Amino acid sequence: MKGIKLLIIDDEVEFAATLCRRLQLRNIDAFDAHSGQEGLARLSELHPNVVILDLKMHDMSGLDVLKKIKNYDTSIEVIMLTGHGSVRAGVDAEEKGAFDYMIKPVDLPDLLVKVEQAVQKQARERA
After folding, report:
1. What's the Rg (C-alpha) of the chain?
2. Model confidence pLDDT, tens digit, residues 1-40
3. Secondary structure of the chain: what % helix, strand, coil (to 5)?
């Protein structure tokens, strides 16, 4: 999965850091941010293809972060992570421009498929 630059925005520090390391081991250029504000600040620095974004964070809603990401660059694909019982919120996120949503805890092989699909969508839209 070379050529993918990915940003994880999740206020669960251990989860985000571990997921970041696991993606890096699969040759994905992955970075993590531990709040909505930090993630938004890193957008212009990193220019990611894909963002993995937690729906509920302490400093701001994932839906607010999603809106700001899409205002910054509509081509960035965002995969939302939702907790148990928040499927409706995941569907709402898709309606607001998210590529897809997944329920935590995420299965890494399933997440990798979603990331690959998001990158393929980007490539089709750029062609």
Report:
1. 13
2. 678 999 999 999 999 999 999 999 999 999 999 999 999 9
3. 50, 20, 30
Phi-psi region of 97 (alpha: psi -120 to 50; beta: other; left: phi over 0): left
Q: How far apart are CA 60 and CA 73, in angstroms?
A: 19
Q: Is the pLDDT of residue 126 over 90?
A: no
Name 60's Cβ contacts closer than 8 Å, sequence gap at least 6.
35, 36, 37
- Mind spelling out the 3-state secondary structure of 26-60? CCCEEEEECCHHHHHHHHHHHCCCEEEEECECCCC
Residue whose tokens read 């504000």: 37
